[in-house]
Amino acid sequence: MNVFQYIAQNHGEVLELTLEHLWMVVASTLFAVLIGIPLGILISRRPGWSKAVLGTANVIQTIPSLALFAFLLPVPWIGARSWRLAILALTLYALLPLIRNTYAGIKGVDPAIVEAGRGMGMTDRQLLFRVELPLALGFIIAGVRVAAVISVGLATIAAALGAGGLGEYIFRGLSMVNNQIILVGAIPAAALALLVDAMLGWVERRLSTI
């Protein structure tokens, strides 16, 4: 039986695990957006904090995924549920591109435009929301795109904790030494990553033409 025959015969389970995978990706990316974009704005206003914030996000990226899951296991409430642990870990991994792109996007706004806004009497808050963030939106969406694709890939590791997702097939195939079962998880995960990348890439291109 080849991979696609297996998927066709077990489409119910494949769909369920795909939805679990997608849920973890969407939740972690949303949390990362809610944390990462404000942090990017913050360090654009306080450049002295940029090294500490970006440095911390960089360090998190260098920690192997399974090691990060192990570090988070003792955390109260979080470690008690595998899906909470998985979403927290994926959120932490997704922070760097969001913080970095938000910061770079705001700092990349033409200073002449900012000065023109100040000359019109705009406050710092008005400049941020009416000038800088709209102009930096393409950069920010690019950061969301990278964060989401990272989450799709790393969510497969969450199956090692019992959090579900398409990684269930990958770990099942590894334990059975069965490449076909591994591909049943790997192919839909790769397709999901390509789909997410294409969708957010389209949004990014649309914004860049506005």
Structural features, described:
This protein is mostly helical and 210 residues long. The chain is built from nine helices and no strands. The longest helix has 35 residues, at 11-45. The model has no long low-confidence stretch (mean pLDDT 89).
Summarize the structure.
The chain has 210 residues and is mainly α. The chain has helices spanning 3-9, 11-45, 50-62, 65-72, 82-107, 111-119, 124-154, 167-176, 179-208.
Write the layout of secondary structure elements.
Elements: H1 3-9, H2 11-45, H3 50-62, H4 65-72, H5 82-107, H6 111-119, H7 124-154, H8 167-176, H9 179-208
Helix pairs in contact: 1-9, 2-5, 2-7, 2-9, 3-5, 5-7, 6-7, 7-9, 8-9
Count of discrete alpha- or pi-helical segments spanning 4 or more residues: 9
**Main sheet attributes: strand count, strand direction, barrel closure:** none
Q: How many strands appear in the DSSP assignment?
A: 0
What share of residues is helical?
Answer: over 70%
Question: Overall 3D geometry?
Answer: elongated
Rg over CA atoms, rounded to whole Å, is 20 Å
Question: N-to-C SSE series?
Answer: HHHHHHHHH
Mean pLDDT: 89
Proportion of beta-strand residues: under 5%
State the end-to-end CA separation.
Answer: 49 Å
Question: Low-confidence parts lasting 5 or more residues at pLDDT below 50?
Answer: none
Q: Structural class, judged by helices and strands?
A: mainly alpha
